């Protein structure tokens, strides 16, 4: 039967973490150190963070990179409320994160106990499922249900609270732990046939690959499907790293990050096949009129279906859906004229990007070192300095948004990507990079972040050092919150008495060096290539993080844009 009795609830949690294969747990325990005590004799790593929000970000990065549950453990009361921004991000990113927290003892609820809070009420709006364990005999079942809910359907965060009176009680587990592997659904056969017929009838199909396709493109299944259809391939921002971006049908990132000439394909397509995308606003920004563009949307959870445009929703696993379509469409050949059109647009897109990068370089060279380093040049140098198996972890500010615009940055065939969700909380990428590095220790991890986001994250530099996370942080320094400053300039002009940016020392060098991390500063474009090669070599050889601060210009807007215009960039006429 494999029954087992544990001396305490936290010992049962520790064994369950081992069963899950949790390579790392992220968090900041409360005054009760029993979980750490239970982990002492195990090989489970606990990354002790300085801030609970960052712990959730790290667990989310771990989950997105690995495809396994990310685990976060914290104390009670304000420790729990500090995690809520991170929980919101995990929900928006569809990341399977398990948050475990302590809770006030049942007999002290309502007495004004220390750090007493109705934690279930606080966290429920942000999670798929939440449960409180008041009796130790319920713990094993709650842990198993939490993981099952986190990884199945549309993945997302779950919450388990262990009340103080139950934490020290013995726990008996009956039978072995259940499997934590997700169950992959095959869509309804009638829906598969109907949608396969619609795909076969399309003359100009376009494949949109979203974050729900992560870890589902075994043996380049999705590229082969696109080749069968002759379809253009785009990804959402969260879907990057799923598709080989050197494939001749790949044309970039959709929505907000699609610029001329790739945007023409969206005006010309007659069917979008969206795989694992919830079709959020950034992914559909700039799309043609909803009434004229049918979409077949494949998602695992019905709550993710978008019904405001013509088309069909398919409930099922991306890989199983595409495999079934491929069988139904055996012998189908796409329209060669459309395929040639896609190839031509891809080539023109690459040429236009080279023109933009050259123009940015020429402007920077003419202005001299005082103008800072062009972001396009930073990305080019970074691609040359770090091996092509690298994972790029991103923020979403004014200058770091350059890396969302293909081909100024490409994941190639071997690279990966982790980005913030539609919520884009400041500092997510900087912290998530730690989780990514621990989830995939064999791959180079680079975080491109703005100085505003990095300054918010800097309290975790000792965590980065202690965890041995060899992340290369490339910090684009525009003097503060460049996105907000650009929006302010648009409203008030450049003479406002308010300011979000200023030319001042960042203070990062002292902190980085104090914790044994590498540090470099680039103000002159001519120094960029050498510094990035040196910095990456430091990360690879010493297995520790490095920080490279690069001075950039506030006016260096991403391609096809002219600065911030509220929530989104202003588009240039091209």
Question: Short description, anyone?
Answer:
The protein is 37% helix and 18% strand. The chain has 574 residues and is of the alpha/beta class.
Describe the protein:
It is a single chain. The chain has 21 helices and 22 strands. With 574 residues, the protein is an alpha/beta fold. It folds into 3 domains: 4-173, Thiamin diphosphate (ThDP)-binding fold, Pyr/PP domains (Rossmann fold); 189-344, TPP-binding domain (Rossmann fold, 3-Layer(aba) Sandwich), CATH 3.40.50.1220; 368-571, 3-Layer(aba) Sandwich (Rossmann fold). Helix 3 (52-66) packs parallel to helix 5, helix 3 (52-66) packs across helix 16 (428-439) and helix 9 (189-201) packs across helix 13. The model has no long low-confidence stretch (mean pLDDT 92). It is 37% helix and 18% strand. It is globular and about 70 Å long. A 6-stranded parallel β-sheet has the order 3-2-4-5-7-6, with helices on both faces. Strands 11-10-9-12-13-14 form a 6-stranded parallel β-sheet. It comes from Streptomyces virginiae (Streptomyces cinnamonensis). Its cofactor is thiamine diphosphate.
| Intertermini distance | 69 Å
CATH class placement of the largest domain = Alpha Beta
Strand count, sense and barrel status of the largest sheet are:
6 strands, parallel
The fold-level CATH name of the largest domain is: Rossmann fold
Report the C-alpha radius of gyration, rounded.
24 Å
CATH superfamily of the largest domain: Thiamin diphosphate (ThDP)-binding fold, Pyr/PP domains
Q: List low-confidence stretches.
A: none
As for the number of domains, it is 3
- SS-derived structural category: alpha/beta
Strand content: 15-25%
Number of strands: 22
Query: CATH architecture of the largest domain, please?
Result: 3-Layer(aba) Sandwich
The strand line-up of the biggest sheet is 3-2-4-5-7-6
